[in-house]
Write a structure and sequence with these properties.
603 residues, 6-stranded mixed β-sheet, 13 helices, 7-stranded mixed β-sheet, Metallo-beta-lactamase, Chain A, Immunoglobulin-like, 35 strands
């Protein structure tokens, strides 16, 4: 079948589309790979590139043949690990007592090398064709579609997003977590995303070409919304959510009501926009898993931002802290919009080198920072002046962002405090997580900062904006003092003071990748938990046959202070995964044991 001039359909375990120009072919999906035996039928001598819509085996199970053929393999960014690192996925994927229902086990059985990932929201030339990649989650979280203009017609290669008018290839694939309908909602949003690009012909992975896309999309949307509403008390306003994601807090300050965590937009009269946090836009819920393919950054809210608020460029994004739900979209913003990331120094280091840290909620990829901002010093962006202040509590690596907009003093607080509803009461909760490096007096310090800044409006990462008055500032001071008092009552701090974290050493980097016999450096930050100065000794613990230089290090450290020790570790010539090294802490005559560890891959 030939859907368009130079475009052919080959039926295999899925539909494989063959785009031919000058006897070179580009393939959309690959199936078993039998298409390689029929290239001459399509007027092609070789395949230069294979573009994959999603990771399922029926799309890609023969990819080893494409590699042997010499074709370049391009895969969706969110799903790359399910191609060239799928062996690690099979080793790590829970198989007992799991609630993660994504069809990620419908993945390749063995890894295949890939050339790279396709550039979402952008057009790149593959072979003789200019191909645009559009994120279209639904059938899988990381699915993409490809748009190609041929002879004045726009072709959309949609994978398994849609099978035919009003139908999907699999409803089971749209259930990503227990009882939820994330993939159903994502499919509707993806239909909107594709519909806005007005394809003339839709070419699915299963089924026949769809020559009336608008009617097919509308019918599927109605049926999917009916399915969703059958399981809820109130109908879902999908179109309203998609087209109007922003709440206007002031004429120049917007709140994205669809994002996780909540992001905010500061509007300049120049047409520029500054984002405070930008994690998972237009969220349909979080899958249960925590692997790379369980998180989907994309940019659907930027369309309404331009259409409704006169924005022509997203210039800057600033994080309140490093957590993935606040920064997941930063790299995509940079790649697609040219957005610069500005950050306070302590947050910037975690973003840029996440493997150094043993912290929860780290994003998978380094996020380079274009401009490191000094806390306490105002920075100008167009008509606004913003000042970042250290805001430890929820995490040590966080800031409050203060600015004036439309005559109001606003402070962005990230996830510092939360409002939770209990039956019959509203409780203000100080959002501490010990693993984020919470310290006993952090919330008394943040309460003092708020008192100094006197904001009229507080905006946070997951809760409604809050008007601030003296009673609320008093409440935060009382709760901060109460929290500190409770910790001092419960912990033996007069004898041994490891603060709230309860540990006395931190080993960095936490994750190391090196080669057999190739040395690497580590540092250990160690704490003297006693009131008086004393000798702190760190003995580095390494696997048998490895060398640590020096084996131990000692320094005089003031009371309740820290010192950093540096070591060089040389592994053996044997490859291994997640070998453990440790930092054994002794202070004076007191042995505290192996308080810190790091993980080493030798490849």
């Amino acid at each position: 079948m030939r859907p368009a001039d130079g475009v052919h359909l080959f039926r295999d375990t899925c539909n494989v589309y063959v785009l031919v120009r000058d006897r070179d072919a580009v393939l959309i999906d690959f199936g078993e790979g039998a298409v390689l035996d029929h290239l001459a039928d399509f007027g092609a001598d070789r395949v230069t590139d294979v573009l994959v819509t999603h990771h399922h085996r029926d799309q890609v199970q023969g990819l080893h043949r494409a590699v042997a053929h010499g074709a370049r393999i391009w895969v969706p960014p969110v799903e790359r690990d399910l191609f060239d690192k799928v062996d690690a996925h099979w080793q790590q994927r829970p198989i007992h007592n799991y609630y993660d229902l994504r069809q990620d086990r419908f993945s390749l059985l063995e890894p295949v090398p890939v050339t790279g990932t396709v550039p979402e929201y952008r057009t790149r030339r593959f072979g003789g064709f200019d191909i645009t990649t559009v994120p279209t989650p639904g059938h899988t979280l990381g699915s993409v579609s490809y748009l190609v203009d041929v002879d004045g017609r726009r072709l959309a290669f949609t994978g398994d997003l849609i099978h035919s008018a009003g139908k999907v290839w699999s409803l089971a694939a749209t259930q990503w977590s227990y009882t939820a309908l994330e993939g159903v909602k994502a499919t509707v949003f993806s239909l909107y995303e594709l519909g806005a690009r007005a394809p003339d012909l839709v070419l699915p992975s299963h089924g026949d070409p769809i020559d009336e896309p608008r009617a097919a999309f509308d019918l599927l949307e109605r049926r999917l919304r009916a399915y969703h509403d059958s399981r809820h008390d109130r109908p879902w306003d999908a179109r309203g959510q998609w087209e109007h994601p922003f709440e206007r807090l002031t004429p120049h300050l917007l709140r994205n009501t669809t994002s996780f965590a909540t992001s905010y937009v500061l509007l300049s009269d120049t047409g520029g926009a500054l984002l405070i946090d930008f994690g998972l836009d237009m969220i349909v819920n979080l899958p249960t898993g925590d692997d790379r393919s369980s998180r989907r950054p994309w940019l659907p809210s930027l369309g309404p931002l331009r259409r409704d608020f006169g924005v022509d460029r997203v210039e800057v994004a600033i994080p309140t802290h490093y957590h993935d739900d606040h920064v997941a979209g930063f790299n995509l913003l940079r790649e697609v919009e040219g957005t610069q990331v500005w950050s306070a120094g302590a947050v910037a280091d975690v973003l840029a080198t996440p493997s150094r840290y043993d912290l929860p909620c780290l994003w998978y990829d380094p996020i380079p920072v274009d401009r490191v901002l000094e806390t306490g010093r105002p920075v100008r962006w167009h008509e606004y002046e913003l000042t970042l202040y250290p805001l430890p509590g929820h995490t040590l690596y966080a800031v409050a962002i203060a600015f004036d907009v439309d005559g109001q003093r606003v402070v962005a607080t990230g996830d510092q405090q939360t409002t939770t509803w209990q039956p019959g009461e509203r409780a203000e909760v100080l959002n501490l997580q010990y693993k984020n490096r919470f310290r006993i007096d952090d919330f008394t310090r943040s309460a003092a900062l708020y008192r100094k800044l006197r904001p009229e409006l507080m905006i946070s990462g997951h809760w409604e904006p809050r008007r601030v008055d003296d009673a609320y500032l008093d409440l935060l001071e009382e709760k901060g003092a109460e929290l500190a008092r409770i910790h001092r009552e419960l912990l033996p701090l007069s004898d041994v003071d490891f603060d709230a974290e309860g540990v006395g050493a931190w080993l960095r980097p936490y994750q190391v990748t090196t080669g057999p016999g190739v040395p690497f450096g580590v540092e250990v930050e160690a704490r003297n938990p006693f009131a008086d100065a004393d000798e702190v000794t760190i003995a580095l613990v390494v696997p048998a046959g490895w060398r640590a230089e020096p084996a131990t290090a000692t320094a005089e450290v003031p009371g309740r202070a820290t010192e950093t020790f540096e070591f060089t570790v040389t592994p053996t010539g044997t490859a291994c995964r997640r070998a453990r090294i440790g930092a054994d802490l002794t202070v004076g005559a007191t042995r505290f044991g192996q308080h810190a560890e790091a993980l080493v891959d030798v490849r």
